[in-house]
Each structure stands twice: as structure tokens, then as C-alpha cells.
């Protein structure tokens, strides 16, 4: 793994050392302050490009195109809101997805299953233990966004999202987010409306570099990937970890996300 990850800069393999503890503490502080942390240069030079070369033939010929109109909540309605409330403004998301079972033995899968990474993430998230997902399709996905496509405004269902940027688009394809736009006790519908109308001064844009590991607390932080421009697609791996072992999607969930049950 030392040829894939920069373990000198990010000592995941030295759990409990002063350097490891310092990295965990810095990551926790960034999560508290910004709702995310980024490990730029997590991949060694050339590894992101290698991963793209492994995945691109599958992406070009076998990826599932997921296209949908949705609001920020991915719900058809909110009981306490009128159907025309600006917080329910509809947007479009288009992406191309490669599933874990399509890239066995790949660089991306070896990183996902690297146990020191799983233990490091658990420490940063304040979890006693995390487990890789058992679902053969959903455990790791690689998403691509091509010219004119975007992942639009939404809140995540999960508490944390872990991604690894493999390739950045020529223009666009940036992470735009609004930290703690809502809370578990306050949905802040008017604040959501201001964000969707482009009137929130606290919204931020982050342009990540390929090889960056991003851990994001997206349950109450609204976020999107801006529309991609140019010939080069944006390609990102999404890693799914859970506190309990053996997590699987239902057949209905697989069909909904990937167009197939197996």
C-alpha cells in the first residue's frame, strides 16, 4: 500500500503513534469547524491516473446512467411546506456509475478495503469501529460527471460520506456546500430557500485536486457538485462504511441506484 498511498505524510499504518494521533486530531477539528476534512495528496503521484485507466473502459461501456429530477430532500413533498415553496425547488442530477463488482482487484478496491484506513476513519468520526459494506454493488461506487452534468443540491442520508477524487474536470465539477444549514431540531426551510436562490453568503466552493481523500458530514450540510464543463469528465470514488457489519442493500434499492439487482 506504500506505493499507492502517501503513508509518510498520512501515517495510517502507524496507528497510535504521535504522528497518527496528530492527524486524527487535526481531522476531528476540521470536521467540527467545516463539516469536512481533506487529505490532499493522499494518493502518490500517478496513482489517480492509474486508477482512472483501470476504470475508464468499464465507465465508457458498462456504467449505469442515473438521471433524475429531485428537490434537495429527495422527497416528493414535505407536509409542512406548500408545493410551490422555494425550498422544494426541483433540480436535475445526472451521473454515470460503476459498481464494486465491475472493478474487482482494482486500485480503488484495494484502498477501500485497507484496514488501517477503516480504523483511521472510525477514529476521526468518533466511532468504536467501522466495517466495509458487504453489498457487492454498493460497497464502492465510482461516479463520473460529463460535460453539462452535475450532482445537484441535496442532503446526505448517511452521517458521513467518504470520497476519493480520481480525475477533475477541466472546468466546473467543484464541491459547493453550506455547513450546518439545518439541524436535527431545526429544518430551517427559509435558509434552504435562500441557498437554492443563490442568496446565502455562507455557501462555499471547494475545488479539489485528484488524489484527495474527502470526509464530509453531509446530513445537515447542503452540498452539490457544480456543472461540469469541458471534455474531461470528473471521476470520483465513493466509499461506504458502516458501524454494523454485513450491511446490504435490498434488491429494490440496487435497481433504483444501479438499474440491476445483481
Give an overview of the whole structure.
This protein is α+β, with helices and mostly antiparallel strands and 262 residues long. The chain has six helices and 13 strands. It has helices spanning 18-34, 47-62, 107-112, 115-124, 189-196, 251-258, and strands at residues 36-39, 64-70, 91-99, 131-132, 140-145, 151-154, 161-167, 175-178, 204-206, 213-216, 222-225, 234-239, 241-242. The chain starts with 17 loop residues before the first helix and ends with a helix.
Task: Annotate the secondary structure layout.
Layout: H1 18-34, E1 36-39, H2 47-62, E2 64-70, E3 91-99, H3 107-112, H4 115-124, E4 131-132, E5 140-145, E6 151-154, E7 161-167, E8 175-178, H5 189-196, E9 204-206, E10 213-216, E11 222-225, E12 234-239, E13 241-242, H6 251-258
Antiparallel strand pairs: 1-10, 2-3, 3-5, 4-13, 5-12, 6-11, 7-10, 7-12, 8-9, 8-11
Please describe the structure with a list of short key phrases separated by commas or semicolons.
single chain, 262 residues, Jelly Rolls, 4-stranded antiparallel β-sheet, 6 helices, 25% helix
Number of strands: 13
Gyration radius, to the nearest Å?
18 Å
CATH topology type: Jelly Rolls
Percent helix among the residues? 10-25%
Identify the strand order in the major beta sheet.
1-10-7-12-5-3-2
Low-confidence stretches: none
| CATH superfamily caption | q2cbj1_9rhob like domain
CATH architecture: Sandwich
Could you give a short account of the major beta sheet?
7 strands, antiparallel
Share of β-strand residues:
15-25%
CATH class category label: Mainly Beta
Number of self-contained structural domains? 1
Which geometry do the CA atoms define? globular
Helix- and strand-based class?
alpha+beta
H/E series: HEHEEHHEEEEEHEEEEEH
Mean pLDDT: 96
Tell me the number of helical segments per DSSP (H or I, 4 or more residues long). 6
Our measurement of the CA-to-CA distance between the termini, rounded to an integer number of angstroms, reads: 30 Å
Amino acid at each position: 500500500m506504500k506505493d499507492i498511498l502517501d503513508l509518510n505524510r498520512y501515517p495510517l499504518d502507524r496507528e497510535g503513534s504521535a504522528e497518527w494521533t496528530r492527524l486524527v486530531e487535526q481531522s476531528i477539528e476540521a470536521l467540527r469547524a467545516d463539516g469536512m476534512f481533506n487529505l490532499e495528496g493522499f494518493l502518490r503521484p500517478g496513482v489517480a491516473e492509474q486508477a482512472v485507466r483501470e476504470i475508464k473502459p468499464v465507465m465508457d461501456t458498462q456504467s449505469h446512467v442515473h438521471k433524475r429530477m429531485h428537490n434537495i430532500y429527495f422527497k416528493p413533498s414535505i407536509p409542512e411546506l406548500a408545493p410551490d415553496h422555494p425550498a422544494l425547488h426541483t433540480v436535475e442530477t445526472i451521473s454515470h456509475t460503476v459498481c464494486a463488482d465491475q472493478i474487482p482487484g482494482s486500485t480503488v478496491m484495494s484502498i477501500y478495503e485497507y484496514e488501517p484506513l477503516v480504523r483511521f476513519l472510525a477514529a476521526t468520526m468518533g466511532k468504536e469501529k467501522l466495517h466495509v459494506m458487504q453489498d457487492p454493488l454498493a460497497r464502492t461506487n465510482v461516479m463520473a460527471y460529463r460535460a453539462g452534468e452535475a450532482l445537484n443540491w441535496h442532503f446526505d442520508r448517511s452521517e458521513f460520506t467518504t470520497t476519493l477524487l480520481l480525475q477533475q474536470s477541466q472546468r466546473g465539477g467543484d464541491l459547493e456546500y453550506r455547513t450546518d444549514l439545518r439541524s436535527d431540531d431545526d429544518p430551517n426551510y427559509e435558509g434552504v430557500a435562500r441557498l437554492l436562490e443563490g442568496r446565502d453568503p455562507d455557501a462555499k466552493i471547494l475545488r479539489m485536486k485528484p488524489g484527495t481523500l474527502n470526509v464530509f458530514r453531509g446530513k445537515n450540510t447542503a452540498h452539490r457538485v457544480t456543472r461540469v464543463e469541458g471534455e474531461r469528465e470528473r471521476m470520483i470514488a465513493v466509499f461506504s462504511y458502516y458501524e454494523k457489519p454485513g450491511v446490504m442493500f435490498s434488491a429494490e434499492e440496487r435497481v433504483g441506484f444501479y438499474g440491476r439487482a445483481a
